[in-house]
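#struct-pred

JT: dropping the chains for the assembly here, can someone run the whole complex?
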Amino acid sequence: MRDTALPMDDRGLAYGDGVFETILVRDGRPLLWKLHMARLQAGIERLALPRLDLAAFEALPAQCGPGLKVLKLIVTRGSGGRGYRPPEPAEPRWRWTISAFQPIAERWFEGVNVRCCELRLGRQPRLAGIKHLARLENVLARQEWQDDAIAEGLLLDSEDCLVEATAMNLVWRREGRLETPLLDRCGVDGTLLSALEAIVDIDRVRVGIDTLLAADAAWLINSVQGAWPIRRLDDSAGNCLRQWRLATSDTFRQAAHEQLGYSLNLGD
Amino acid sequence: MRDTALPMDDRGLAYGDGVFETILVRDGRPLLWKLHMARLQAGIERLALPRLDLAAFEALPAQCGPGLKVLKLIVTRGSGGRGYRPPEPAEPRWRWTISAFQPIAERWFEGVNVRCCELRLGRQPRLAGIKHLARLENVLARQEWQDDAIAEGLLLDSEDCLVEATAMNLVWRREGRLETPLLDRCGVDGTLLSALEAIVDIDRVRVGIDTLLAADAAWLINSVQGAWPIRRLDDSAGNCLRQWRLATSDTFRQAAHEQLGYSLNLGD
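RK: done, full complex below.
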């Protein structure tokens, strides 16, 4: 693992001035690599970070070694500047870590219980979609519950529109169509979501919780954990809003897991 | 200066999960120390960071040595945790740096040109007021202009209510009353603002830009730079919205500078 210390004057620490990716790597081969690099590049451009040759990252997955790993890659604007004003020129800094990873397979098959968070995401179109480092809203939302029987928390925005879960995107099926919240005002545009949109139609919609409650099925997805069917949704006080009966055959989950190579390993 | 390296798994870097203060120190004596410590404590409580004995910081200002310095203090939730979920227990980490500082005295006397930023702050009451590390909105706003003749940028929220400048609070006088924007949905509750509120009446109001344009005088303030009278306000395209004639006697600025000891040094 690369020496990972950062100086205190790094702007990633000072202001959240940077972006990151967490990438699933199996036996040294990354999953959804192009989509991760595309989002990283989009974040670099959105924050006007200095240009960076992403080819430098190509060699990292092979260093993960055998087995299932998560490669976390952070790119910051680097050190310094007078206050919020970035230095000219800035020298970007990047760091990475590798962690062993084991997906929670029972959540794929048994589904998960989810709650609605009390916190509402602020609307910030300038930061929406990218995976920047200023994620304190997600931290506060994740602090709302300690019960391990609750797998995730749904987030709505300041005008009560559905956005995502604290670390996953949300997809549901309604009247035979797949839908997911628009991510143009807040939220992170997930790489697994992008990969699925390339192979199936998923409508991006601006709707409130009632639309989700009317869905025939719903899933939480991300590029590391895969797809978790939602079994039950509670409000923030713990009252059940809706339960879903899980289908015996879940083609959406299967499509998600094919993207991550999970179907082959676990007979899903 | 304390060894300031931080590990990559520090949550301040990963998520902006922490708070900071920048404190003016003159000849080893801090200005507005109690207010800085009070805001730090408020931030620690709001983020539910582990309790920290702030007495540990009491010895820092004396280490700044002679002259005018800025002491920057960062407190993060420390390392680790599974994703956004904080580790239990978390071990907070704190770091500090000392920098030489020279206020820009001509801005006190000649006033400043200010522009309105295009970026609108997202509304997030859970983070409003505290000086947390997830300040990417401020960075993006400060990137909007490069012209050194523009000293600061005004920020409005997503519903076009006045909030602050990128690194300063905003105060104006209208019909003989001092007013400042409410900071309950976004923005940072400045220590100099708090100090001034303790000695003069300043109404916190939720208003748009028109109220500022109708003001008789306006200032930007913070606990390091002091008070800058606003001479001219432009829109984000550079069109002048309003000019103010600076008063020969500015009692508000004098009151601000007494809080920071600037009046004694510079005959203000």
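JT: nice. Chain A has eight helices and 13 strands. The longest helix of chain A spans residues 33-46.
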